[in-house]
Specification:
heterodimer, A: about 110 residues, mainly beta, seven-stranded mixed β-sheet, about 55% strand, B: about 110 residues, six-stranded mixed β-sheet, five-stranded antiparallel β-sheet
């Protein structure tokens, strides 16, 4: 795959596990996003890294922790999740100033 | 906070007919309005977008119209085909941000053969 890639594509974890989701973009973008997609709900922005700025949705629980070591890589660290955190987690990238966002294929997360 | 309302949540049309999906936004400073298509099991992909200095934009069978006064915009698909079946999302730029979008809840479009 080219563009925006995400690993793993599927993840099943228990509530006591710690795992990380990875996103990588090869488009030369300078903004990266984590979204949560649940059935019949709007895409929920969790975190944005744009240039030197990080923006977070204050409603996101602290059990989700992002990391952006450089403009091409983005991680979402997960710990002590709840069953209601089961969803599709989408990464996107874009150019700050253009608003257009390119999505990765997503990670389907199931919390048991 | 700012929001985008999208209607209908489900739309079923006969193959060959037209489909219209409508969105209303609240942020008067929004200036960018994209539409994304998400097929089952796939990622959302941009299909068309419009900026606030334009009232209408067309690309083959799809078109988007924008009414800034009323703060609503619509997606029009003509001569629908089975491959148009998907979930469509509208979004509006968050006015003060040059990189954030506010999303609608999506419309599931079903094309009946």
């Amino acid at each position: 795959e080219t563009g925006v890639t995400q690993t793993p594509r599927h993840l099943v974890m228990g509530m006591t596990n710690k795992k990380s989701l990875k996103c990588e973009q090869h488009l030369g973008h300078n903004a990266m996003y984590w979204y949560k997609q649940s059935a019949k709900k709007p895409l929920e922005l969790m975190f944005v890294y744009s240039l030197e700025e990080r923006v977070e949705n204050n409603s996101v629980p602290s059990r989700f922790s992002p990391e952006c070591p450089n403009s091409s890589h983005l991680f979402l660290h997960l710990h002590t999740l709840q069953p209601e955190d089961s969803a599709l987690y989408l990464c996107a990238s874009g150019l700050a100033g253009s608003n257009e966002q390119f999505f990765g294929p997503g990670t389907r997360l199931t919390v048991l | 906070g700012e929001n985008v309302e999208q209607h209908p949540s489900t739309l079923s049309v006969q193959e060959g007919d037209s489909a219209v999906i409508k969105c209303t936004y609240s942020d008067s400073a929004s200036n960018y309005f994209p539409w994304y298509k998400q097929e089952l099991g796939k990622r959302p992909q941009l299909i068309i977008d419009i900026r606030s200095n334009v009232g209408e934009k067309k690309d083959q069978r799809i078109a988007v119209t924008l009414n800034k006064t009323a703060k609503h915009f619509s997606l029009h698909i003509t001569e629908t085909q089975p491959e148009d079946s998907a979930v469509y999302f509208c979004a509006a730029s968050l006015g003060w941000s040059n990189y954030q979008l506010i999303w609608g809840a999506g419309t599931k479009l079903i094309i009946k053969p």
